[in-house]
Design a protein that fits this description.
The protein contains nine helices and 14 strands. The chain is α/β, with parallel strands linked by helices.
Length: 315
Amino acid sequence: MAALSGGRPRAAGSRVAVLGASGCVGRCVSAALAREGHEVLAVARRGGPAVADHVFAAVDVAAVPPAELAGLFTRHRVSAVVNVTGGWGTTEEEMQYAHITLVDRLVGALARLPRPPRLVHVGSIHEYGPVPEPHSIGEDLEPRPTTMYARTKLAGSRLVLDATRAGRVDGLVLRAVNVCGPRTTRASFLGAVADRLRAASVGTPVTLRVADARRDFIDVRDLAEAVVLAVASPVTGRVVNIGRGEASSMRELVDLLVAASGLPPQALRIEDGPVASKGGGWTLADIRLAGELLGWKPRIALAEAMRATWETPAD
């Protein structure tokens, strides 16, 4: 049974369960929903400061039977569920557990309810697989993922879409590009670079290996606003890309992060490195559908996102 703890008083809006609420994206999504008047049921394996402002349920969603999860949603009269869970594991088993088993149990839980809550599932732009430069990635592109991460993320998204087409759930999939901004996970490239920079000085410079790659990045706060709009939207059974719609060089992003850190140039050495990605060396999301269907567009400039990445590290 889920362990529960109290948070702030209930808001006047609907009750939204955020799965993965203690992570970088989940924390920001929960805050954005609360600002709009929703009560948030924060669901994560562990509690702590990240979920202290919300009603909290300690649940490993991939490990509990669907009936137990359905009971949790029923007790809290949840009207929408946002899935921002994700796995940074290194094995097939870990990826299957985080991206497929979890979604399968979630869909099974929602399908048990007389009126299934709205489901917004945050997937990944990497589900499409590698795309050659300079092509943009539209929602009509046939996914051809090549990495373990991308294949399992796609499988999870397809579970949501298949269940929606079958009338079992009311689901929408957001395929998000790489995320930056406040509390960027240290498991990501930019999070790891920020950590390295914090240890740098003129006397002890750091060497960074930066790939000759260009990728679409979005501030997590912009992604959170897209999720809030998706929760309220009537659009169902669709995939919607969420990104800046710009391909930025990794060197440019590192330069912006270094500028935000205030470190002198001599504290850093940059070398060419190999392209290491969960999707490819080039990503550019076509985000027109997000504007048409959700009324959403990115607002936060990359320079501001890099400042937030530097000033608000992960806990």
